[in-house]
Specification:
The protein is α/β, with parallel strands linked by helices. The chain folds into 3 domains: 166 residues, Galactose-binding domain-like (Jelly Rolls), CATH 2.60.120; 87 residues, Immunoglobulins (Immunoglobulin-like, Sandwich); 301 residues, Alpha-Beta Barrel (TIM Barrel), CATH 3.20.20.80. It contains 9 helices and 30 strands. The strands form 7 sheets. The protein has an 8-stranded parallel beta barrel with strand order 23-24-25-26-27-28-29-30, surrounded by 4 helices. The radius of gyration is 24 Å and the shape is globular. The model has no long low-confidence stretch (mean pLDDT 95). Bound molecules: beta-D-glucopyranuronic acid (BDP). The site of beta-D-glucopyranuronic acid has 9 residues, from loops. Beta-D-glucopyranuronic acid (BDP) binds next to loops.
Length: 596
């Protein structure tokens, strides 16, 4: 799905701002009508949870309502107009003048609704959006709703971040021509100094397709026509990690000599490949440094914020990081566009986090119920996961910064049924995108001899906490244990491996001369221990620390005002570990440290 843009033939009106807001006590009020009876207003984009002081709103389980007036520009007659939601977490129903016009399930991918027939150009309409935050065994991510005898609904889930909800990304009204570019797909390669941009254009009607590729100085470097083809670029400048270069592919539709639609797409020419135990970008072995992140800031929750976007990237660059993972859901498209421009490498993850009832059972590894079964996570969950994968790959397939898809975080891959659940999803992802490697983040309960799905994937992303959840305050024992496990993965699979999570909760300002968990010194020592091990294992192709910054979680006995594994605090102040990482990463760059 193309990101909306203003072009010569398209217009975009932002609906961001303050909307009337109310929570709804009814479980499934339908149909709904009339003016929202409320004094509350909520900011869009923002999660609604932390905006208000009322804990009933923060902890509300079910539907909330957003409402505002919208005037459709008079000049839009003759075109189609759409409502576009960059995300509504986790389900939405949309009403124009109290008429249901559409909806969407899935809280981290966009959707659009054609409202041309119900909202004529030049008129004002009342736009009402119902958003539901419930997670069940058939949503991605999954969760459980418990209803008490008094009817009180409680949400639980097995992922370790707060279930922020609402309209956390931009909402816009867009006008597009009736015959238009519906989608564009590009893949790139190069041979010597000649780049190749393979393109396919989908349209909504009959028109001649013209494409033009310009470089950053605006010079046309290749042109073509037809729905699909290959454009060759002489003396190509590659998109490189740390050194982005973007061409622009201008797609035009012509009818009888007139341009009826035009759409520009940023294109980076680069290749990605897994060969043996190496991860190659542009044929060169690449070593990932960086973080698992979250979309998480005070007050906004998961609300997208350009100021934090810029600042977070500045901090990553300062730390010498060359990459991050969109743990544990697709991020706002602005983030990927920025990564494209800044040359930061992205591992793009689905929202399938918490497919693991062993974690729900506590850190025992003994699930009370099997994770994969018709009663728990079965065919319907898998179908929701597949649909989410389709929406993610369709949205993000053209970003040069995205080098790999992560299909899930810490699923119970050592349990019966894991292979039956994941095999079709891996097949689907490869059909949707044959160009990018696939991975999943491996939970600590899944070992080289018990994991049932590792062979299906290209890269093994390993989440491990030796020195924290295992061997806390005993890094001397943690070190050989970590090393021996990583060696076993390397020997058994011969694939590239990366540490996709390793980290220790740390209270900023706490210090100790001993190995004391929660101290800033311990976080640094923990990371250094891990690094010594990684540098001894040739198959390691990267390290992403958990987490970039402290973040909000649900209440739990092991969480003090959220998860404190951030290398930066929630307000982005560095802990001592930030300097430890900076010293290492600025010295190693994009290449693997010499194996010792
Ligand atoms: C891992 C999860 C991550 C958690 C982290 C932790 O992938 O979401 O936040 O552990 O416990 O299991 O800090």
């Amino acid at each position: 799905m193309l990101k909306p843009r203003t072009t010569a033939t398209r217009e975009l009106l932002s609906l961001d701002g303050l909307w009337r807001f109310a929570t709804d006590a009814s479980v499934n009020r339908q149909p709904w009508a009339s003016l929202l009876d409320t004094k509350l207003e909520a900011a869009v984009p923002s999660s609604y949870n932390d905006l208000f002081v009322d804990s009933a709103i923060r902890n509300h389980v079910g539907w909330v309502w957003y409402q505002r007036q919208v005037r459709i520009p008079r000049s839009w007659s003759g075109d189609r107009h759409f409502l576009r939601f960059d995300a509504a977490t986790h389900e939405a129903r949309v009403y124009v003048n109290d008429v249901l016009v559409g909806g969407h399930v899935g809280g981290y991918t966009p959707f659009e609704i054609d409202i041309t027939e119900v909202a004529q150009a030049g008129t004002e309409v009342r736009l009402t959006v119902a958003v539901n935050n419930e997670l069940t065994n058939v949503t991605v991510p999954p969760g459980t709703i418990t209803v008490a005898a008094n009817g009180k609904r409680t949400q639980s889930y097995s992922h370790d971040f707060y279930n922020y909800a609402g309209l956390a990304r931009s909402v816009s009204l867009v006008s597009v021509p009736a015959v238009r570019v519906a989608d564009v797909t590009v893949t790139t390669t190069y041979e010597g100094t000649v780049g190749a941009v393979d393109y396919t254009v989908e349209t909504t009607g009959d028109a001649d397709v013209h494409v033009r590729l310009t470089d950053e100085s605006g010079t046309v470097v290749a042109e073509g026509s037809g729905d699909s083809g290959v454009l060759h670029v002489q003396d190509v400048t590659l998109w490189q990690p740390g050194s982005a270069y973007l061409y622009t592919l201008d797609v035009e539709l012509h009818q009888g000599g007139a341009v009826v639609d035009s759409y520009p797409l940023a294109v980076g020419v680069r290749t990605v490949e897994v060969r043996g135990a190496e991860f190659l970008i542009n044929g060169e072995p690449f070593y990932f440094t960086g973080f698992g992140k979250h979309e998480d800031t005070a007050v906004r929750g998961k609300g997208h914020d350009d100021a934090y976007l810029v600042h977070d990237f500045q901090l990553m660059e300062w730390a010498g990081a060359n990459s991050f993972r969109t743990s544990h859901y697709p991020y706002a498209e602005e983030v990927l566009e920025f990564a494209d421009r800044q040359g930061i490498v992205v591992i793009n993850e689905t929202a399938a986090v918490g497919l693991n009832l062993a974690v729900v059972a506590g850190l025992t590894g003994m699930p009370q119920k099997p994770t994969f079964s018709p009663e728990t996570y079965g065919a319907e969950t898998q179908a929701a996961h597949a649909q989410h994968l389709r929406e993610l790959i369709t949205r993000d397939k053209n970003h040069p910064s995205v080098v790999m898809w992560s299909i899930a975080n810490e699923p119970s891959s050592n349990e019966e049924g894991a292979r039956e659940y994941f095999e079709p999803l891996v097949k689907l992802a490869r059909e949707l995108d044959p160009t990018r490697p696939l991975t999943y983040a491996i939970v600590m309960f899944a070992m080289p001899d018990t994991d049932k799905i590792a062979d299906l994937f290209d890269v093994l992303s390993i989440n491990r906490y030796y020195g924290w959840y295992i061997d806390i305050a005993d890094l001397a024992s943690a070190e050989p244990r970590l090393e021996s496990e990583l060696q076993r993965w390397a020997e058994k699979f011969g694939k590239p491996m990366m540490m996709s999570e390793y980290g220790a909760d740390t209270l900023t300002g706490m210090h100790s001369v001993w190995d004391r968990p929660w101290s800033e010194e311990y976080q640094s020592a923990f990371l250094e221990m891990n690094h010594r091990v990684f540098d001894r294992i040739p198959a390691m192709v990267g390290e992403q620390v958990w987490n970039f910054a402290d973040f909000e979680t649900g209440p739990a006995i092991h969480r003090v005002d959220g998860n404190k594994k951030g290398v930066f605090t929630r307000d982005r102040k560095p802990k001592a570990a930030a300097h430890t990482l900076r010293a290492r990463w600025t010295s190693i760059g994009n290449s693997k440290p010499k194996t010792q």
